[in-house]
Design brief:
The chain is an alpha+beta fold.
Length: 250
């Protein structure tokens, strides 16, 4: 008997006979960007200043998942700015579409970036939401939720020690508007593109990055204040200064 994963793969297949002429309802197109009216404050991010001397091929060679961080070294706001730009920064515009550093199916960009900032210079500890169109952060929730987030991430301690944890959600209707059930395939692809950009940018900055796919969805959704249906957690990643002598993994 097929499991849910097997059925998903079968039922989201494209077949020649199943693809007809698609007419999009432009009046029903979901909003391309999200903002929180209840945000505690808005924090403009400094202009990103990526390093210009890194060799892409060397970064690809050196990239590893690094899970142990120096707890005494916070991340600078400037470094965070570079990481956010590398993952979903705006690089060009065409009409109402703002193209990003990472590709997205149909240029629909259903992935939203949240942060749990534990130790970022010039930022209070708490949950933030990144707005790429304004290149700023919405401050959503005060306080250290690292114990709860670590527990939700199946007890993976790097969440508790990392200066920042990236939390990527999907606003599924942005993609379903065009791709219907096939959208569920595309959001995971989009998240993978974004995460690899984070790995390479982190490597360029001398940071350690580790992505996380194992977590209890409902507690993370609750921490972010999303409903788990229209918007839900998809992927996570920790970032910090690697602890000297720490072991590197794949």
């Amino acid at each position: 008997m097929d499991g849910v994963g097997d059925r998903f793969q079968k039922e989201t297949k494209y077949r020649p006979r199943s693809i007809g002429v698609q007419r999009l309802n432009w009046e029903a197109k979901p909003a391309s960007f999200k903002s929180h009216e209840e945000a505690l404050s808005i924090i403009p991010l400094p202009e990103p200043e990526p390093k210009q001397t890194n060799d892409l091929w060397q970064l690809l060679q050196d990239r590893r998942s690094r899970r142990t961080y120096d707890r005494k070294r916070p991340l600078s706001l400037g470094a965070l700015s570079v990481l956010l730009w590398a993952t979903q920064g705006v690089t060009a515009g065409h009409g109402e579409t703002l193209f990003r550093t990472a590709p997205s199916a149909g240029a629909l960009y259903p992935i939203e970036t949240y942060l749990f900032a534990r130790a970022i210079e010039d930022l209070e500890t708490g949950i933030y939401h990144f707005r790429p169109e304004h290149f700023d952060l919405e401050y959503l929730c005060r306080g250290d939720c690292s114990p709860e987030l670590t527990l939700a991430a199946l007890g993976q301690n790097m969440v508790e020690t990392a200066p920042v944890t990236f939390l990527w959600t999907a606003l599924i209707e942005r993609s379903k508007w065009k791709y219907e059930q096939r959208a569920y395939r595309y959001i995971y692809l989009d998240a993978g593109h974004i995460a690899e950009n984070l790995y390479l940018a982190g490597e360029a900055l001398g940071m350690g990055v580790c992505t996380i796919g194992a977590f209890f969805d409902d507690p993370v959704n609750a921490l972010l204040g999303v409903d788990g249906k229209k918007e839900f957690i998809l992927y996570m990643a920790t970032v910090g200064h690697p602890r000297k002598g720490s072991h590197r993994r794949g």
